[in-house]
Each structure stands twice: as structure tokens, then as C-alpha cells.
Amino acid sequence: MTADRLPFRDPQLPFGKRVDDLLGRLTLDERIALLHQFAPAVDRLGVPAFRTGQEALHGVAWMGPATVFPQAVGLGATWNEDLVRRVGEAVSTEVRAMRARDDRVGLNVWAPTVNLLRHPLWGRGEEGYSEDPALTSAIATAYTRGLRGDHPVYWRTAPVLKHWLAHNNETDRDTASASVRPRVLHEYDLRAFRTAVEAGAVAGVMPAYNLVNGRPNHVSPYLREHLRTWTDRELLVCSDAGAPSNLVDSEHYFDTHEEATAAALRAGVDSFTDHGTDGSKTTARVRGALDRGLLEESDVDTAVRRQLHVRLALGEFDPDLDPYAGTDAFDTAEHRALALEAAEQAVVLLANDGLLPLDPDAGQRVAVVGPLADECKLDWYSGTLIHRSSPLDGLRDRFGADRVTHAEGADVVRLRCAAGLLRVPDGGGTAGTAARGAEGALDPALLAGRTDLPPLTVDGRGTEFALTDWGGGVLTLRAPDGHYLSVADDRRVRASADQPGGWVVQETFRLEPHDGGHLLRHLGTGGHVSVAADGVKVAADGEGAPAVFAVETVRRGADEVAAAAGAADVVVVVAGNDPHINGRETEDRTTLALPEAQDRLWRAARAANPRTVLVLASSYPYAVPDAAAELPALLWTAHGGQAAGTALARVLAGDVSPAGRLPQTWYAADADLPDLFDYDVIGGRQTYLYFDGRPLFPFGHGLTYTAFTYADLAAERRGDTVRVAFTVANTGPAASDEVAQVYARAVDPAVPRPHRELVAHRRVHLASGARERLEFEVPLCALGFWDVAHGRWTVAPGTYAFEAAASSADVRLTGTVEVTGPAPAPRPVLERGLDAADYDEQRGTRIADRSRVSGDCVTPAGEGAGELLFRACDLGAGAASAALEVSGTGAVTLALGDGTPLASADVAVPGGPYAYTRVHVPVEAAGVRDLRIGLTGTVRLATVAFTRAES
């Protein structure tokens, strides 16, 4: 029988039978080879090569020109699932069209990122949608539906959700562990993934680099215990780049790569993204694990089976039936219009005293100033721009080029050393560079700059450089021809880059005070700039003394901005971040503050012209309380892709009424933030759900150019749902979208619950004078919480308030619903004992791994003592003793909630952290009591079991 007539190619057979047939025809070596990201072809069966991984976060990334949509956090700011679904459709259509021209383009797309934006200093906040799990899961579900397509059998692309699980720090991201207690796990982190998976539009997930509760995500038991229980589909789990090797190399979780590979495969990782295109090391490790008895062939087969299901769904073996095989729509008029629509809907009007909108027909002179005024910034997961629209471009198009002036506001400087002034040779900068890298990129080379251009020299004339301070002393220097100073592999400094970028940015520097002048440190290499006979370079260690520079300021940026502002009728200051600098993948931010240089610019503009608008174009929130208090208008937009400038101009001109809403809290100061590594949103009082302070701008906030009223709220329970309805009316002068938000809260909760929690929302368009009755069906389970006392999801009886709101801090209407049922029972500790991680409150502890495979324990965090509090423990007629399951060295104490001691035990268990023993201590306590457990040293407590007192 020829290969094209084998059963696995018969579209009349169910996928399961086709997969079984193909699997049975593959040799063991062929099956093992399929476990690597770059799976080779099996020519004898006509099976082509396949690779997992095509970045598609907000457009097709890394593969050249493509439509670039707003950053993911900007898509989150639209609060519009229909729009985001259409963006997903456009992106996946372009994936298919590009695949038809270039077989390096993959159909297994690694998007979207659904990690919750718990902490605004996280460097990758631009990749997520929201701090709220309901909004995140709604947007993610919409995007994956667009990526998947609507055919009942075949998928346009196969989306993989990133990054499983509780991943919110780039600092020590491959070695840090997030301590995630069960309530946070179930009520917060898992929810972001679950809805999209249950909706049936997700092909799989990618584990994160970090550890959760002491265990690397790439061997997470939650893949089996939770993820794979949410669907009957064969989900594909793709490792992050290099993460399988990290299990040994950086995390030291296993002693050998064979053990690590076996553990990851058995935990549920199906595709290993490691060592670039070279699959030989992965296959050798799998073979070694089999030889050592760490794996069974069935473990390999399970992973391969999941991969083959995805390949069948993508139509690989049914080209004549694949409805997407002929897709060639690319950079279409529809895609360009959608990019503009998305950018418009992502703009959030934070404050406005009536200055906006501006009238384009009034003849006003507009000054557009600031470091991002003439920029259309891309991020690490962007494609290459086909079309470009900066704020300056957009405003000139809309208001008239003769009425719009521009001032960047960068300081213009010369750099003088003992040998002379730095100079760019004639013809020294003509083009920039590009690079790929990170999660499965085709070319992992780092951006290193051009080597075919002459390096900088020194002479008596010098070059005037535009110096931009991006905050924290991080600088870029740009030559008059527009190219940035960059450092190549040969360590020479050249004016060669179009933009800062690359996996390691080679275009950033820092001036360090030294001997009456400054050393110029290149941040990409860490070395200092020196001057040699063959040109300016970054000196390697021991290569000689670095040059000491004097900075000669030719023109101050603030003065340039003030002059432009003073000559204009209105000023638009465009500030924010470069997505490759100070907050990005591999780098967290250190502060919420706007860079000092940018802060000076808006202040200079306002001093010269009170009619000043501040536009923050950024990947994340800023703390700008002075700007919010002093300026007449303030807007935020994520980097809006190819149509960002046009969209902003249309909003400023009133062609579009802004209706974006903040997808995360904007805090007033760094002091409002928890520690970056504190993942306990409940105990740490984090996000709008629990934050007790007053934010600068709350979650869900956003203004428009009109006014909306809310009326006639009705909330009633109907079986397993609560029906909420109210009327929204546009009572202002302009047509606009409104984002109606529904929040719920427990009125008198017995355990800590959110101040309010988003349970529904809808973005609607209303003409001036129009009204619409909105109805929402809220599942009763949305009112629940994870009951640690009984290990289950629980909706407690009581009164629940349902709030119709314009933001989490702007509640317009409230209704209540009564939920009946039995009250939560006390902890049945005599029957079930206590799992240490199921505490109600804690102080000074962290959750760790009970074993390398599964389970949790609790141990003191750092040095000192920790304490766990367990409320309402039912000890019945009395407990006689407690058995403590412990490892490590230290002490455990038991006490009642009021501090009355019950028992104590010294612990010294040999054999390492996973060698547990049971220590028995007598206790005398009865009734329903709170219990406190104290921990010291390196002791790990897994469980406590109680025995009854004899009656």
C-alpha cells in the first residue's frame, strides 16, 4: 500500500484511529525525534517536517513584514471580545498566507499570553491582557477563537497559551519560585487559562520558566491535575525555549538531563524547545532516559499522539479538504482598517477638563513634542512594519502639516575626551539591524550591529548626538542621520541601528561620574567605551583604560519643548517607553515613575502653555500624580501598532470618542506596590480586587467625550445563574462606545473576599440620545471561592451585591441577591487533618514542593520564624495527639488561636528536604478552635493528622 493510501490519510476515519495508525507505523527513533521542536520529516511515510512555535501575539512576529496590531495590553484595554476575535482571525489568516510563501512560518502559534498583570513592574506586562482573571480569560478566549477559525474539523492555526503558571517576574525568572496558596491558585491564576481551554479553541499551553511552590513549571503536576481535566481534547504542551535544560543547568532540580527530560515528559511536556534547530541532544536524553528505565515507550507515545492530533487538526494530511489551505489574504484593506479600529478602541482617556476634543477646523497651531512624538515603536513580539503612523504623522494628516510643529525634546550633546570629540565618519550610518531569538525563534543570534560600516572616531569637530534618557540613567545616542549608536560583535561603536532592539539591546549606554567627567558604559556588554587607533570601541577586560568624557550640551530638550509650546495654541506631549528598554522580557522595571527627563518635558510644556495634553504611549502604567492634577487632559495607549498615530489623531480630533478602559490598576506611587515576588494577591492586598488604598486611576477607568447614565437595575436569581439587567443612555452630545461593567461582591463574607469582582461587561455603541437595555447572565459559581477547609469550590450563602458600574470605582447602581444553602462547616480536622498549605493566613512562610512530583509543604521564608493560622478547626470532643509530617531541621509549635500553647517538637530529619517522617506530639484541645502552627529553621511541614481523645 502506498503512503498516500494508508489509513492515517483517510479523512473518513476519526482522528483517534488515524493517529493510532500513524503512531503504529513510526519506529521508536522516529517517535523520539518528533519530541523536539523541529521535528524531522519521515520520508518513507510521506510525513513532512513540522515545528512547534510561531509567535503571533499581536500579529505575525519575526518572519518579516506583517500587519502589526496594538500590543496585547492594548487589546485588553478595548474590553471588546468581538474586536479581538476579528484581530485573531486576521493574524491567523496572515500566518496561513505567509506559510504558503515560506515554510518556516509555523501553524502552531504561541499566543496569547494570559499571565495576569498582577504587578505593574513586571517587564512583560505588555504581553498580557489584564490584572483581572475574568477580563483576561474573556479576551483570550476571543483571540484564540479567531486564531483557531470556525470550521468544525480543521483549524486555521493551533494556539498555545503562555505561560503556565503564576509568571510575573523577569528577575531570576528561571530560578525564582512563586508561592501560590490554594485560594490564589483556584480563584486567580488558573482562571485565566481555564475559560479559553473549556471554550475549545486552545491547542495547548506553554509552561513558564519560573517555579511554583518550589517546583519548576515544566514538571508541574497541575498540567495533569487541572489543565487536562478541563477538556477531552488532546492538549499539546510545548516547553519554553531552553527550559528543559534549565531543570538541571540553572535550577539544579535534577542531577542529570535524562532525569529532567523524563520528569518533564511524564508530567506532560510534549514538545521540547531546546538547543535551537538541533534536536540531537533532546533525542539523546530521551533515549538515555529509556535506557535507564526512567521512561516507558508509552510515555513517548503519549506525547507524540498529542502532537499528531494537532497536525491532523491543521489539515496537514488532508490538503484537499483543508478549508484554509488556499488562504492568501495578507496586508489587505480589511486588515489595515482593523488595525486602525483596534488602535482607536485601545485609547484610554484618563482625564479631561474639556480641552479635548480639539477642533481640526479651528485653525489651531498644534505642537507635538516628546521622545515618542515621531515614533511608531515595536516590541519583541512584533512583525516588521509595512505601514507606519507616528503621532506626528497622524496629527499632520488630520490637522494640516502647516499647523503642526514638532520638537523631540532630546538633549543635543557632544562627547569630548582627551583625544577629541566623538564623531561619526561620513557615511557611517545607513541602516539598522534585526534579530530573532527567545521562544523558538528561527535565528537565536543576538543583535550585534553592522560590521560593514566604519566605527566612530575622534577629531576636533565631532558629531552632535541626540541623547534620550529613558530613565534610570539608561541612554540612547542618535546621530544626525537618524541612526543609533550600536556595538557590533567586534566591539566597535558605530551609528548603525534604526532602532534599539534585539534580545540583548546593543544601543543603550550609561554615563557614570568619574574623575571630574564621565565613563560611558555600554549596557549590552557591560564594558566601557574607549578610544583606540582603529576607532571607538568597548574595551574588553584588561584592554586598557576607558575614555573619560565631558558632556557638552549644545541644546537642552526642555528648552526646545518650551519654545515649541509657547508658539502653539495647544501642545501634545507624547511620552512613555521604548518596549526594548527598561521593562521587557528578561528585565523588570524598578519604578512606576515617569523618567525624570520626560517629567521635565511635560512640565516645561505646561509652563509655556497651559493647554497641554499628555499622551502616555507605553507598555505599562506610570505613577503620574502631578500630571493628573495639573494638566487639563491625560491619555494612555499601549503601543498601537502600525496605525497608532492615525488612531491617536482621530481621538484627539473627536472623530472617535475614546472608550478604552484600563485593564489594570494605575497606582499613585511605588509605595502602593507589593513585593515583586509576592504572588499572594489576597494576603498582599493586590490588584483592584483587594487593594485597600486609593489608586491614581482605578481598574476599568476611562472617560469619553459624552455622558452616560445608568438606570433601572434588576438582579434576580434564576436557577444556577443571576440575571442582571440595566439601561444605559447616552445623554451627552457625541456618539460613543460605553463599556458597561458588572461587579459582584459578598456583602458580609466569612473569609477575605474581593472588594468587588468583575463578573460581566459589554462594550456598546450609542448615538447621542440613544439608550439600550443590557442583560447579563452571571453563573452562580462566579460568586464562589476556594474553600481551603474542605478543598472545594464553594458559593457561601448570604447576600451578594451586583453593581452596574463605569469602572471599579464608579458604581452607578446596586442590587442584591440572596443565596441560600448550608453555611460552611468548620474544618473537619479529626477526619481530614490539615494540609499545611491550606492555611487561612500566614506570616513569614512560603509554600514549597512536597516532592519533586507532586504535593505542597510549608517552610519558613528566609531566616527566622513563620506562622500559619487555620480558622474554625473542629476538634470534636477532643484531640489527644497530632502527627506532624515533617522534614528538615528546626521546630514546630502548635497553639490555639489565642496563643495558648498546645505542643512543640524539635525536628532533625536526615536525608534532604524530601525525606519526611512523622513526629507525634500530645495535644489537649476540643471544640471548634482556631489553630496556630509555628515553624522555625529549615523545617518543612506537609500535613498534620489528629487522633481523637478516648471518650
TrEMBL record:
Domain Fibronectin type III-like: 738-808
Domain Cellulose binding type IV, first and last residues per copy: 827-948
Superkingdom of source: Bacteria
Record-level GO BP terms: arabinan catabolic process; xylan catabolic process
One Pfam family hit: Glyco_hydro_3_C
Keywords for this protein: Hydrolase, Signal
GO molecular function: alpha-L-arabinofuranosidase activity; carbohydrate binding; xylan 1,4-beta-xylosidase activity
Transmembrane helix recorded as keyword: no
UniProt family annotation: Belongs to the glycosyl hydrolase 3 family.
Protein name per UniProt: Sugar hydrolase
Organism: Streptomyces roseolilacinus
